[in-house]
Amino acid sequence: MDRLMTKTLAEIYLQQGHLQEAYDIYKTLAEKDPSDAEIQKRLEELREKLDPFPFSSFPSPLSREEKIHHLEKWLSNIRKRRPT
Asked: What pLDDT, in 10s, does the model give residues 21-38?
């Protein structure tokens, strides 16, 4: 199966809206070649799409403005995922 894990396959999954599958492939590719900047960039983009509101990464407590900002980002990501 590892031989099938390519950037092309990950991009196909991404275009079809299968974010977790694309992420899993990019993660495997990043483990094989951690110096590939393109893979690292895609991983970061997919992390944000898959978990736009990671509570564990926030210093606590958040200000009211920070909470609003993160909730708006979360809502924006939901709207982007909705099929048109």
From this structure: 999 999 999 999 999 999
33 touches 18 (CB < 8 A): no
Calpha distance 1→76 (Å, rounded): 35
| pTM exceeds cut of 0.85 | no
Q: Is the CB of residue 64 less than 8 Å from the CB of residue 57?
A: no
Residue of 6, 81, 84, 82 whose CA lies nearest to 46 = 81
Q: Which secondary structure element, helix H or strand E, spans residue 77, and what is its range? A: helix 64-81
Q: List CB contacts of 29: < 8 A, sequence separation 6 or more.
A: 5, 6, 7, 10, 36, 39
Tokens 């999954």 sit on residue: 13
Angle at 71 between CA 68 and CA 73, to 5 degrees: 110
